[in-house]
């Protein structure tokens, strides 16, 4: 890892003579060549491997995408108008001892994201003329941006071969995972909102988790007694990972205060009012059903499906670019959520999609179909119809609510992060910053999206067919279009 010390070597003044310091022994050198000769001869023999012409440097980043055109580098004119994430990185390189943009010989990245999307982690491989980059100076240069270094820049030339091989095909991750952050008010029906929205709801008791699979009612009763709490009834279903406790209203308020954040059975507990938790479970059942339909329905099997209606521009049904397979999809558990106040208007949840690759806008439109069916704008059968050859309108949720959560490189069970020296605390902080940004910036776009659903965003093709049939005098066609675009129905 000597090159990482060298790349973090302190640059001296900006005068004609610039000193470079060896990160191993602290000796200063007047030139980059002198420093590398010293490293190769004494402190870091692997430095002798550096090719004089060029080297590939790995950068691991996280970013808030609100201020950027997209993640991938664009042409100079577009970059001048609005930077990309990669453009922001390249602009910061000279301040850290790196080359200016014209001297960057190549760019490869693990994942591209659209305008407005965020990334908890990302990796970019730049081909540069050999240089000594100062990591701290690069961090300082990026401070005015919303791009964060998650680890030091690393030269593939100077990595051990097994590590370097992980990043040899950085452009082809074996899987990508995206998170869609969704406010609960987008997932509940109007009648549910009326029933559940109250400024002073009765708790009905307390819900808490996670609990281990071998947890027993006796252990729960003993813990509640230790906390001086008196339950009416403890409901513990094996394998569910949580406990429902019915108790008097005043006792439930005490339980919420005492159980939230309590370490028990080697876990930090999360607690919520029982009635709130049961209502959220009702919403999550619909969300999970929609996720199952998106992945392949109740009888899903491994294989490809045509996601043509979930992409923009839409390819032909069955076209190679439309054929995809979701590897995994899931919803955030209650124990991972942060309670804010009146949950129907202030709490958020999330869904996660994982695949080898996604088509353009596929994640946003899958989430759009999920929201449309969960809140009652469409029946659950709408998702199955989206996989049929006929064109369907599938609205895209706001880009500001999407984040690249993770990606995997190299052979199965290989973790690229240790080789890239990712600081996991920095990565965790990046995720928290994304959640905070989403809650503030995506709120109004979500309201706009829901208004478009109320105005029939999923039925525009039916409206077009109705107009066309009316112009032709096609009564049967008009009736079919009306039937297809009937008023909203509750999820089946």
Automatic annotation (TrEMBL):
Keywords: Isomerase. Transmembrane segments: none annotated. The keyword Isomerase applies. InterPro entries: PsdUridine_synth_cat_dom_sf (IPR020103), PsdUridine_synth_TruA (IPR001406), PsdUridine_synth_TruA_C (IPR020095), TruA/RsuA/RluB/E/F_N (IPR020094). It comes from the Eukaryota. Signal peptide: none annotated. SUPFAM superfamilies: Pseudouridine synthase (SSF55120). PANTHER family: PSEUDOURIDYLATE SYNTHASE, TRNA PSEUDOURIDINE SYNTHASE-LIKE 1. This is tRNA pseudouridine synthase.
């Amino acid at each position: 890892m000597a090159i990482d010390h060298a790349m973090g070597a302190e640059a001296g003044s900006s005068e004609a003579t610039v000193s470079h310091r060896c990160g191993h022994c602290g000796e200063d050198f007047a030139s980059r060549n002198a420093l590398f000769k010293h490293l190769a001869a004494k402190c870091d023999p692997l430095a002798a491997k550096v090719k004089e012409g060029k080297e590939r440097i790995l950068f691991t980043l996280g970013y808030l995408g609100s201020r950027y055109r997209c993640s991938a580098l664009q042409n100079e004119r577009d970059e001048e108008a609005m930077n990309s994430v990669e453009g922001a990185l390249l602009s910061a390189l000279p301040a850290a001892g790196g080359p200016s943009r014209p001297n960057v010989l190549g760019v490869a990245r693990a994942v591209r994201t659209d305008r407005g999307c965020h990334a908890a982690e990302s990796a970019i491989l730049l081909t540069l003329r050999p240089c000594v980059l100062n990591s701290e100076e690069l961090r300082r240069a990026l401070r005015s941006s919303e791009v964060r270094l998650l680890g030091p820049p690393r030269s593939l030339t100077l990595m051990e071969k097994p590590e370097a091989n992980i990043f040899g095909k950085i452009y082809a991750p074996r899987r990508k995972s995206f998170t869609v952050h969704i406010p609960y008010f987008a997932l509940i029906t109007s009648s549910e909102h009326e029933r559940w929205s109250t400024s002073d709801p009765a708790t009905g008791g307390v819900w808490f988790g996670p609990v281990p699979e071998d947890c027993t009612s006796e252990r729960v009763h003993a813990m509640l007694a230790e906390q001086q709490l008196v339950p009416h009834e403890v409901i513990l279903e094996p394998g569910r990972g949580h406990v429902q406790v019915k108790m008097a209203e005043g006792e439930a308020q005490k339980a919420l205060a005492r159980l939230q954040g309590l370490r028990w059975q080697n876990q930090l507990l999360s607690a919520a009012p029982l009635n709130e938790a049961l209502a959220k479970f009702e919403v999550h059942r619909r969300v999970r059903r929609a996720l199952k339909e998106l992945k392949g329905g109740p009888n899903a099997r491994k294989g490809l499906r045509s996601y043509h209606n979930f992409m923009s521009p839409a390819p032909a049904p069955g076209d190679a670019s439309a054929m995809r397979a979701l590897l995994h999809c899931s919803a955030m558990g209650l124990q991972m959520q942060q309670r804010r106040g009146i949950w129907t208007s202030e709490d958020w949840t999330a869904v996660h999609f994982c695949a080898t690759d996604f088509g353009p806008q596929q994640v946003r439109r899958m989430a759009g179909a999920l929201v449309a069916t969960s809140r009652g704008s469409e029946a659950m059968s709408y998702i199955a119809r989206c996989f049929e050859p006929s064109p369907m309108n599938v609205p895209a949720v706001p880009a500001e609510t999407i984040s690249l959560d993770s990606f995997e490189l190299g052979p199965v069970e290989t973790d690229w992060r240790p080789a890239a020296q990712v600081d996991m605390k920095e990565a965790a902080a990046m995720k928290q910053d994304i959640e905070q940004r989403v809650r503030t910036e995506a709120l109004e776009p979500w309201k706009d999206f829901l208004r478009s659903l109320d105005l029939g965003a999923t039925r525009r093709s039916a409206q077009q067919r109705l107009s066309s049939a009316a112009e032709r005098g096609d009564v049967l066609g008009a009736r079919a279009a009306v039937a297809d675009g009937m008023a909203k129905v509750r999820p089946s």
